[in-house]
Records
---
Amino acid sequence: MISNAYLKRVYADVCRRDANEPEFLQAVQEVFESLELVVDQHPEWERAGLIERFVEPERVVSFRVPWTDDAGAVRVNRGFRVQFNSAIGPYKGGLRFHPSVNLSVIKFLGFEQTLKNSLTTLPMGGGKGGSDFDPKGKSDGEVMRFCQSFMTELYRHIGQFTDTPAGDIGVGGREVAYLYGQYKRIVNRFEAGVLTGKGLTFGGSLARTQATGYGLCYYAAEALDHLRGESFQGKTVVISGSGNVAQYAAEKCIQLGGKVVAMSDSQGYIYDPKGVDLQVLFDIKQRRRARISVYADEVPGSEYHEGCRNIWTVKCDIALPCASQNEMDEDGAKALVANGCIGVFEGANMPLTPEAIAVVQSNGLLYSPGKASNAGGVATSGLEMSQNSMRLSWSFDEVDQRLHEIMKNIYKACYDASVQCGRPGDLMVGANIAGFLKVADAMMAQGIV
């Protein structure tokens, strides 16, 4: 609960104005509860209306996206771009194509992105965008026509020094390529830095595909070592999701000595006591774009279970939720505790409900919010922008090494902030405060804008 009078007043105003945006309100409340530990030390924030400005996006764009399907029927979706905060750099954040996308989801993601980008130490502000379009089951032609229509509106709001989108759920290499092709066609310029997550032949960065999943494991490994004297070696790991983040978190986890025994998609989860065979999983998800249930049909000894939320009942030492927001509820967290889990590190954005976080923390499990532990993706997007600006391409190992150092530094910033505010080891508080203070200093310096 929020008790500080200033934060309480601002939160009440946010609730009144954004009453129909539950995801956004949830994200704001979590951050405010952390800021209570430092706000009294900065009376200048209230005089400058800093918190009021921090929770209000600088710009919200909503637009229609008409496109034609393969049968010739006209479809219409809704597109968004929320440019949340540019105090420390151009807006930066992904595009999400998923039926669940609405203004509340995009605002919460943009709000979180502002803090996440701050933690990377790279000069990037926070933004997010997307559409309620669902690429699943669509042909390449349909996806292309949608992306072209989407970019025909979006192009006027972005630029490498203004706003640089990337991919997110439902937006992978195929979608980014179609989006970039249309942008280049409209503006008649090869501005590689305007989108990240591009293909290697037109300005993409090695290791960008792997970055979010790899970075998650680098962060988790640092926390496990520093706070518990543990590692991934010999640990059993459960990873929700089977998209880009989950796939490469599984790959890095195995490289670090862990055994991934369960993964999921929106319909259910697989359990493989021998350890998930990533070659099979990658073929199913990357080449065939099929349901994860196919894995159980093809790998003897594995099982498929309907209902993705039940994945947290699988016994594990480490849990990496990498699917979507609010995927782990109180019951899921209690199941992890009962099975002896020692740490939960978020690979998705806000995958734990507030009740789940309370269970995890009150039982002494290590916990990291996604704004810290999944920041590797946007950090490597920042590295891709740097390469584009310099007209250079770094090797995989060089990018991976830079990513590893960034994730170690993010962990240190979170831990140091937790100590400074009297909550040593509380990485959620540390992430919120460390991310916010840099943005706050920049906003104060730039005046009332």
---
Amino acid sequence: MTEPFAPPGPPVTAVPEPAGPVDGPPPARFAYDVHTWKEIAHLLANLPVSLVGFTYTVTMLFTGAGLTVTVIGLPLLAAGLMGARLLGRLERARARKLLGVRVEEPSPLPWRGSGGFWPQLWLALKDPVGWRTVLYELMRLPWGIVTFVVTLTGLFVLWPVLPFIVRALANADRAMVRGLLSPSDELERRIAELESDRGVVVDTAAADLRRIERDLHDGAQARLVNLAMGLGLAKEKLLEDPDAAASMVEEAHGEVKLALQELRDLARGIHPAVLTDRGLDAALSSVASRCTVPVTVTVDLDERPAAAIEGIAYFTVSELLQNVSKHSGARSASVEAWRSEGRLFLQVRDDGRGGASLDGGTGMRGLADRLDAVDGLFVVDSPVGGPTTVTAELPWRDRSGRLAPDARTAKRASARGPR
């Protein structure tokens, strides 16, 4: 038995499923759903919650301000702001549960690195999170009265359109939570970066001091001690054995030359004289001349940057050229330095075997940390087989220390490529 013929109808298009969860509740409808009931519960709870928060905030402010003439006033105010932080955390949790607002928790105060009692007290008193929560709690009492009265009245009088009224009031609540209780993402990120960079700078300075102390102790200091002993022996033999004394003075003269060379090398490692006297162009040419492979140096700078930026640029190129000499197996290399958009760019290329990385154990990670500590950037492009291109980017500061006007923004997400 054959089935009856059915004429072809219009093609049926499948409705695509949503790609992911929708942020926020669905549109308001006349029929009450679970999101509407959650918003109603939040709005009705606004009055008792805001009464508690307003009472706490007013009591804390008046008590702390009134007792500032005594020794306990400021500590009480600081403790009250810490309590306001706790109230803000509870409000964020309530908004997450009932309004679906995803607000990140602010970073805790950095007590460990703030010092003693008075620095910690000042840190708590100037806490922006605590003061924003105080402002939030002061605004909430009149708003809580309005939302409680409107929502409770709407349940009995305006229930057909109550979902739309509730949605409008809940959106105002969401805006308050996001505006006053959410941390500033950019500020929080920047604070975390600066705290990390400060630690890197301190560790780097301590490591440099230990290196200088070790080089002085093991090198020039040891040679100067031997020199003093040799001259003392030569002085004793001067009358009874002039030839032996002359030979010892000759050896001491050689020791003096070696000690002077080691001191020059050490001074070059701290801050080379050519960099101070003639600038980055001559200093990079000098360090390139000591590389074991031919290096082409191109510096396109119309003025000199600040001494600190100039020094970091010099030691970055110096370390990279040492890696070229020791690890790359290259036949040639090039160094470029130029200024663009308020940034100082350095680029070192070689035609070696490649394979360099920040975790390769060749000092790359230390260079990246040093540049990051001054808002710089360090990018390594080194495929296996070569060539290797390392780009470093530093903020441009002039000799007076002022940051270039177009470099006041945060550092770029990636370094600029070849010009």
